[in-house]
Amino acid sequence: xxxxxxxxxxxxxxxxxxxxxxxxxxxxxxxxxxxxxxxxxxxxxxxxxxxxxxxxxxxxxxxxxxxxxxxxxxxxxxxxxxxxxxxxxxxxxxxxxxxxxxxxxxxxxxxxxxxxxxxxxxxxxxxxxxxxxxxxxxxxxxxxxxxxxxxxxxxxxxxxxxxxxxxxxxxxxxxxxxxxxxxxxxxxxxxxxxxxxxxxxxxxxxxxxxxxxxxxxxxxxxxxxxxxxxxxxxxxxxxxxxxxxxxxxxxxxxxxxxxxxxxxxxxxxxxxxxxxxxxxxxxxxxxxxxxxxxxxxxxxxxxx
Length: 304
What we know:
This protein is mainly alpha-helical. The protein has helices spanning 16-34, 43-66, 69-78, 84-94, 106-116, 122-135, 144-150, 156-166, 172-181, 187-200, 203-206, 209-218, 224-236, 243-251, 258-266, 272-282, 288-302.
């Protein structure tokens, strides 16, 4: 592991202009690969797409971290560009520009990102949504009407961005929209929305029958991540009606720590045999993190 003192920033001597040029190149390559149907994409293409994405976000993080008036001036040009790739980059940088001081450039960033919600290109809108999720204070709801309207957008990246942007909002209309997005046709949107409803919004204020109902419905989703987020959300609400669902997940294919974490939250002794059996039969499939979670769950269920 590289220590903090020995870490060398690979971008230290690279100008902001050069970094933006590289970001444009990586985003263009990503866009080309994204246009290939996921089912037709080769393993190599999928890996290239991920690599371009990682390189792109490394650069965006560096530009956000620099967070000076230099980067701000570039953003002002990028968001007005005729090239949608450049508008994407401008929006992505603005999401956390000068992230060490969230209020720095706040008014300009919010105004600009809200304007970009009206962009003609879906990926620009998506970037603006995600950036609003990063930038906006939780009590700032000025973008809410536009975000809610975009929840029905035909592009799944936009709907995913909307879901992320609404995650920190506890406004009734935001929660109502997230509940609807829990049933989206796109699995990533459903996953984000179920996570938001289950674990992100303040449970004391929003533990309603409607939220519990949608979480219980998501226990039967075809995707294990969605089911897992629903389990966690209900377990955090100490809903013992899900004990059979937790046991079922513990007995099935090992698909991460959701059921284990739900077991720890519920701390019900009836889960103990299932956890012990899981440790006995599936330890070889687990990471060290999973094993730690499992030990914690066994301890929690043993103490009651």
